[in-house]
Every structure is written in structure tokens, then in C-alpha cells.
Amino acid sequence: MKIKEEQDLSCSETEVIIKYSKRDRQVHHVIMGIGYILLSGILAYEWGMFISNSLHTVTETGADEWMIIRITLSNILSLLFVLLISQKNIHNK
Asked: Over the range 3-16, which residues count as b (16 or more CB within 10 Å of their CB) and which as e?
């Protein structure tokens, strides 16, 4: 990695140019890819919890006897939502 710093004397801005070798760029792409995978996993988990908690029920015993059905329903609703958005984006292209 080479760092080159240039300053234009006519203004107060400094331009920093970083040049990576091919190997450094590949490592950078792998790290960014891992970051995007983690971000998408976190967002998917949060979306699922939002849907699941929106369908939360309270029964007389205080236990959620319908939890399995509620979670299954929330996952199906989430899948349908994603499919509708993806189909809309495909048709708009």
C-alpha cells in the first residue's frame, strides 16, 4: 500500500490517494463481502423479530401456546413481503 498526499495551495483541501496492490484489493473485497453478509443477516433477524413480535398474543395462562404457529406465520409473511418486492423490482426493469 502506497499513500500519496497532495495539497493544493490555492485552497485548504488535502487529497489523499491510496494505491493498493492487487492482493490488498482482493483482501479488501473479501472483508467487505463478509461485512455485507453479516449486515444482511442482522437485518433479516431484526425484520423477523419485528414481524414475530407484531403477532404476539397473550393468553389466559400467560404462556404463548401458539408460539410455533405465530413464528411460522411471521416467517411466511416475511417471505411473501420479500417476494412481492422482488417481483415488483423485476417487472419495473
From this structure: eeeeeeeeeeeeee
